[in-house]
Amino acid sequence: MRTSFGERLLDLAVNGFLWGFRILIVVIVVLGTFLTIRAGKYTSEQWIDFVVFGISQGSIYALIALGYTMVYGILRMINFAHGEIFMSGAFGGYFIATWLTGIGFMDKYPVFGLIISMMFGMLVSTLIALLVERIAYRPLRGAPRLVPLISAIGASFFLQYTFRGFFGPGVYAYPSMKALDGEWIFFGIGILKVQIVVTIAAVVMMSILYSIVMFTKIGKAMRAVSENKDVAALMGIDVNRIIVTTFALGAAMAGAAGVLYALTYRQVNFFTGFTPGIKAFTAAVLGGIGNIPGAMVGGLVLGIVESVGPALFLDSIGIPRPYQLKDAIAYIMLVMILLFRPSGILGERVSKKA
Questions:
Q1: How many whole angstroms separate alpha carbon 53 and alpha carbon 199?
Q2: Any idea what DSSP says for residue 103?
Q3: What are phi and psi of 32, to 5 degrees?
Q4: Do residues 180 and 193 touch, judged by C-beta distance below 8 A?
Q5: What are phi and psi of 186, to 5 degrees?
Q6: Is the pLDDT reported for residue 100 higher than 70?
């Protein structure tokens, strides 16, 4: 009886703490938003800048998150090496962009130069992802879930320090594209060219991936394997081939995101993939892990809240330099979504049979 009473008391205390945490966050958000809007500290142009930057950043998160959610939908595992796959694409794009800039191709043909950089980054990421799948994941496919998770973490560290060994710990400055310098004016509002290009490129890549998954034979096979591998194999689907294809598609999206991220922040190093990788995983969970549209929506929502949130929620309640807390806002938002809607915004989409 004492144990039972103690457990009930503990459950009440935990539930009370969680509800108190929820209420506290909601109060901070509502009060901060009200005070910020009433103070009128930011102009409409600044708010638009926040939103546009958030959309651009969120598009990159969405591209990376697609790799997490696709692999989880097929294998029910989190590929924690995916951030380093993203980083390898950024490095691949850096080297080809540097070479193209050196021979003057990037300035003469900026569109083709960007496409070539993205394609090369996607190729590098895909090759590394296929190696990771073959060496670190495939031998453990029938093992308990914790084993491939540990292998994924090990692969992540291995890739990080392999790139550090080859390229050193320094930061590589991405070559500047003159065609992306400056702004385009829309309705009297200046928007950075690089933000528009990054957003358009990310939307195109996501549209291509969604079309492949939903409207092609390989996409239908991927969805069948996601539902039930054994039944899919009995129907004549090559499960190994589909898993490899899933890794390749997710890695290609991450490679493209790596080049777009480097265009935005103009630098890359061996640790570049860590924070965006964690943010993209947050976006995948936020949208609904295993749900491809959910990963896209989660990335955009995360990017916008991360960009707008510090100014909107925190600036008027006495917090100095609120933008330094943008990462905290992103993760608190994840916690709130998991508390109020654990399946994510669009719902977790996985089969009943793991």
A1: 9
A2: T
A3: -60, -40
A4: yes
A5: -125, 115
A6: yes
What does 157-184 look like in DSSP terms, one character per residue? HHHHHHHHHHH-SSPEEPPP-GGGSSEE
Residues 313 and 297: their CA atoms lie apart, in Å, by 21
**What's the rounded Cα separation, in Å, for the pair 97 and 140?**
37
DSSP state string for 117-132 = HHHHHHHHHHHHHHHH
Short-list 126, 173, 160, 115, CA closest to 275:
160
- Residue 31 DSSP SS3: helix
Cβ partners under 8 Å of residue 322, min gap 6: 310, 311, 313, 314, 315
The answer to whether 297 and 39 have CB atoms below 8 angstroms apart is: no
**DSSP H stretches of helix in the chain:** 2-39, 44-75, 82-102, 105-108, 110-132, 146-167, 193-215, 217-227, 229-234, 239-265, 274-287, 292-309, 326-340
Q: Please state the φ and ψ torsions of residue 171, each to the nearest 5 degrees.
A: -100, 130
Can you tell me the distance from the alpha carbon of 301 to that of 287, in angstroms, rounded to the nearest whole number?
Answer: 9
Please tell me the distance from the alpha carbon of residue 318 to that of residue 191, in angstroms, as a whole number: 30
Contact 296, 66 (CB under 8 A): yes
CB 264 within 8 A of CB 244: no
Q: What angle do CA 48, 202, 339 make, to 5 degrees?
A: 70
Whose CA is closest to 93, among 269, 247, 208, 262? Answer: 262
Cβ density class 161-193: b for 16+ within 10 Å, e for less: eebeeeeeeeebebbebebbeeeeeeeeeebbe
pLDDT tens per residue, range 38-83? 888 888 888 888 899 999 999 999 999 999 999 998 888 889 999 9
Nearest residue to 174 (alpha-carbon basis) of 248, 251, 114: 114
Q: How far is CA 336 from the centre of its chain?
A: 19
- The rounded distance, in Å, linking the Cα atoms of 135 and 354 is 22
- How far apart CA 121 and CA 259 sit, in angstroms, is 7
The answer to pTM > 0.85 is yes
pLDDT digits (tens, 9 = 90+) for 206-261: 999 999 999 999 999 999 998 888 888 888 899 999 999 999 999 999 999 999 99
Buried b (16+ CB within 10 A) or exposed e, 276-288: bbebbbbbbbbbb
